Amino acid sequence: MNMQTPFSAQAGQVSFDRRELGVILSLYGRMVAAGEWRDYGISCLSQSAVFSVFRRTAETPLYRIEKHPALRNRQGMYMVVGMDGQILKRGHDLAQVLRVIERKSLRVVGD
Questions:
Q1: pLDDT band (50, 70, 90) for residue 107
Q2: What does the alpha-carbon distance between residue 3 and residue 8 come to, in Å, rounded to a whole number?
Q3: Alpha helices of the chain — where are they, by DSSP H?
Q4: What value does the CA radius of gyration of the chain take, rounded to a whole number of Å?
Q5: What is this structure's pTM?
Q6: How far apart (Å, rounded) are the C-alpha atoms in residues 15 and 47?
Q7: Residue 8 banded pLDDT, cuts 50, 70, 90
Q8: 84 to each of 44, 61, 80, 99, how far by Cα in Å?
Q9: What pLDDT score does 60 carry?
Protein backbone atom coordinates (compact mmCIF):
# COMPACT_ATOMS: atom_id res chain seq x y z
CA MET A 1 0.00 0.00 0.00
CA ASN A 2 1.36 3.40 -0.98
CA MET A 3 1.13 5.95 1.85
CA GLN A 4 1.48 9.68 1.26
CA THR A 5 2.44 12.17 3.90
CA PRO A 6 -0.23 14.83 4.54
CA PHE A 7 2.25 17.67 3.86
CA SER A 8 3.53 16.48 0.48
CA ALA A 9 1.37 19.03 -1.39
CA GLN A 10 2.75 21.87 0.73
CA ALA A 11 6.40 21.04 0.07
CA GLY A 12 6.45 23.23 -3.05
CA GLN A 13 5.07 26.30 -1.30
CA VAL A 14 7.05 29.40 -0.41
CA SER A 15 6.39 30.85 3.04
CA PHE A 16 7.79 33.39 5.47
CA ASP A 17 9.99 32.00 8.23
CA ARG A 18 9.70 32.96 11.90
CA ARG A 19 12.28 35.77 11.71
CA GLU A 20 10.63 37.33 8.66
CA LEU A 21 7.18 37.16 10.24
CA GLY A 22 8.59 38.75 13.40
CA VAL A 23 9.85 41.75 11.41
CA ILE A 24 6.61 42.08 9.45
CA LEU A 25 4.32 41.67 12.48
CA SER A 26 6.36 44.21 14.44
CA LEU A 27 5.63 46.82 11.77
CA TYR A 28 2.02 45.63 11.55
CA GLY A 29 1.55 46.05 15.31
CA ARG A 30 2.90 49.61 15.25
CA MET A 31 0.61 50.54 12.37
CA VAL A 32 -2.45 48.98 14.05
CA ALA A 33 -1.66 50.92 17.22
CA ALA A 34 -1.48 54.10 15.13
CA GLY A 35 -4.89 53.32 13.63
CA GLU A 36 -3.59 52.99 10.05
CA TRP A 37 -4.11 49.28 9.43
CA ARG A 38 -6.83 46.90 10.58
CA ASP A 39 -6.46 43.55 8.87
CA TYR A 40 -3.97 41.32 7.05
CA GLY A 41 -3.85 38.20 4.93
CA ILE A 42 -1.07 35.73 4.16
CA SER A 43 -0.84 33.75 0.93
CA CYS A 44 1.70 30.95 0.42
CA LEU A 45 1.98 30.19 -3.28
CA SER A 46 4.30 27.98 -5.30
CA GLN A 47 6.54 30.84 -6.50
CA SER A 48 6.05 33.47 -3.78
CA ALA A 49 4.69 34.31 -0.34
CA VAL A 50 2.54 37.42 0.10
CA PHE A 51 1.61 39.37 3.26
CA SER A 52 -1.24 41.75 2.36
CA VAL A 53 -2.18 44.69 4.58
CA PHE A 54 -5.70 46.17 4.59
CA ARG A 55 -7.18 49.36 5.99
CA ARG A 56 -10.58 47.66 6.05
CA THR A 57 -11.39 44.03 5.42
CA ALA A 58 -13.47 44.54 2.27
CA GLU A 59 -10.92 46.72 0.46
CA THR A 60 -8.00 45.97 -1.79
CA PRO A 61 -4.68 45.73 0.06
CA LEU A 62 -2.84 48.95 0.88
CA TYR A 63 0.51 47.16 0.63
CA ARG A 64 1.69 43.70 -0.35
CA ILE A 65 4.94 42.47 1.15
CA GLU A 66 6.18 39.75 -1.19
CA LYS A 67 8.93 37.15 -1.00
CA HIS A 68 10.22 35.71 -4.29
CA PRO A 69 13.12 33.29 -3.62
CA ALA A 70 13.81 32.97 -7.37
CA LEU A 71 14.96 36.63 -7.37
CA ARG A 72 17.40 36.11 -4.48
CA ASN A 73 20.53 36.51 -6.64
CA ARG A 74 19.18 39.36 -8.76
CA GLN A 75 17.42 42.41 -7.33
CA GLY A 76 16.53 40.79 -4.00
CA MET A 77 13.77 38.45 -2.96
CA TYR A 78 11.72 40.95 -0.92
CA MET A 79 9.52 43.67 -2.35
CA VAL A 80 6.81 46.05 -1.23
CA VAL A 81 4.02 46.65 -3.74
CA GLY A 82 1.64 49.59 -3.36
CA MET A 83 -2.11 49.70 -3.75
CA ASP A 84 -1.85 50.53 -7.45
CA GLY A 85 0.54 47.65 -8.21
CA GLN A 86 3.66 49.80 -8.32
CA ILE A 87 6.78 48.27 -6.78
CA LEU A 88 7.85 50.70 -4.06
CA LYS A 89 11.06 48.98 -2.93
CA ARG A 90 13.05 45.81 -3.61
CA GLY A 91 15.99 44.39 -1.76
CA HIS A 92 17.83 41.61 -0.02
CA ASP A 93 17.13 42.80 3.56
CA LEU A 94 13.49 42.68 4.69
CA ALA A 95 13.84 45.35 7.39
CA GLN A 96 15.41 47.76 4.90
CA VAL A 97 12.66 47.13 2.35
CA LEU A 98 9.92 47.74 4.94
CA ARG A 99 11.29 51.19 5.77
CA VAL A 100 9.57 52.56 2.67
CA ILE A 101 6.21 51.91 4.40
CA GLU A 102 7.28 53.65 7.59
CA ARG A 103 8.42 56.73 5.65
CA LYS A 104 5.11 56.92 3.80
CA SER A 105 3.15 56.73 7.05
CA LEU A 106 4.98 59.67 8.69
CA ARG A 107 2.98 62.86 8.57
CA VAL A 108 3.86 66.44 9.37
CA VAL A 109 1.68 67.84 12.14
CA GLY A 110 0.91 71.55 11.75
CA ASP A 111 0.64 74.12 14.53
A1: low
A2: 11
A3: 18-33, 94-105
A4: 16
A5: 0.78
A6: 10
A7: very low
A8: 21, 9, 12, 19
A9: 85
